[in-house]
Amino acid sequence: MIRTMTLALGLAFCAGQAMAADRWDGADELPVHPLACDGAAGAAVAKPYDGGKAVNPPDKAGKPITLIDVPKLIGIGYFNATSKGIQLAAHELGNVTATTDGPTEAKIDEQIRFIDNAVTKGIDGVLFAANDPVAIAPVLKKALSKGIHVVGYDANSTPDAREWFVNQAEFNGIAKSMVDNMAREVGEDKAFAIVTSTFTTPNQARWISEMWAYAQQCHPKLHWLETVEAQEDNNLSFNQATALINKHGEKLAGLFGMTSVATPASAEAVTQAKLCGKVAVVGLATPNGMRPYVNSGCVKSVVLWNPVDLGYAAVYVMRAVVDGKLKPGATEVSAGKLGMLRVVNGSEILLGSPFVFTKANIGEFDF
């Protein structure tokens, strides 16, 4: 069970205590693999293929296919960008038709309904970004049982519920970048809080776990205060960040935003509280959403990857699966203009390393 750690129990950890301490709220309980403090590259975990399998899928190798893309929610910049990448790849390949549809709020029940409806109508493949890795599994397994190929991106399901997962960057790499940037901005012995989506959202839970492990090992004097949920909702994210500012006062030196909604909302809360330069915001977000705060100097570090490339890669992976070019045991897959992408952790396709947007480079990107 993930348990809340209080300040009274001591939030400054030494390296020898690292793995004995309770994980921060919002983390999962999966094994962690923190990268080295000196920046040395970490090795991918070697394991056999652990994905699922479509049952007797029709032979569509080289033939036109129809896909449904069901992200966590529609109507936000991040998933607008992944959808753009999906359409770019579909147009480039010429034999893929893809439609993005999904809930307007990050609700797993609604996401399941959209996938189930698409499966019932008949499609060749499902692309998804899960709101809950366990709850989404039955409907994805239903798709597999009907011979429909299933590929995840951004946020995983349980591995047996899909064939492959396109991981934007390895979780420990994201964690290192986030924590290193926070420590660089606020100092090694300051306190921070986290604004996430929900405690069950798989990618955020993984990042927080790896951030916890890396912080214990490499920045043991950083103080975690608490983690709050904001449901991928802009108003709630702003209100939660404001509540953290008011609750912790001068103790709060930094906020981590774990979503493309929470990070700009946290930056806006800091801006309105007139605390730019006193409360750092480090998080995952699109450059367009963060540009005003970076250009104003209120935010120095935005960690992400290119979500357009993420959606683009997911379509190429799906096409390779349908064509029989990506099978269990593969070590890489061709993804158009992205070149060859590595297979890691059994059934994950790795997009690449995280990227840090700053005032010096953010103007070069438009998504």
How would you explain this protein's 3D organization?
- The chain folds into 2 domains: 65-169 and 306-352, Response regulator (Rossmann fold), CATH 3.40.50; 171-304, Rossmann fold, CATH 3.40.50.2300.
- The protein is built from 9 helices and 14 strands.
- The model is unreliable at 1-20 (pLDDT under 50).
- It is an alpha/beta fold and 367 residues long.
- An 8-stranded mixed sheet has the order 2-1-3-4-5-13-12-11, with helices on both faces. Strands 7-6-8-9-10-14 form a 6-stranded mixed sheet, sandwiched between helices.
Describe the secondary structure blueprint for this structure.
Blueprint: E1 65-70, H1 77-93, E2 96-100, H2 108-121, E3 125-128, H3 137-145, E4 149-153, E5 164-167, H4 171-186, E6 191-196, H5 202-218, E7 223-229, H6 234-248, E8 252-257, H7 262-272, E9 280-284, H8 287-296, E10 301-304, H9 307-322, E11 332-334, E12 340-344, E13 348-350, E14 355-357
Parallel strand pairs: 1-2, 1-3, 3-4, 4-5, 5-13, 6-7, 6-8, 8-9, 9-10
Antiparallel strand pairs: 10-14, 11-12, 12-13
Helix pairs in contact: 1-9, 2-3, 4-5, 6-7
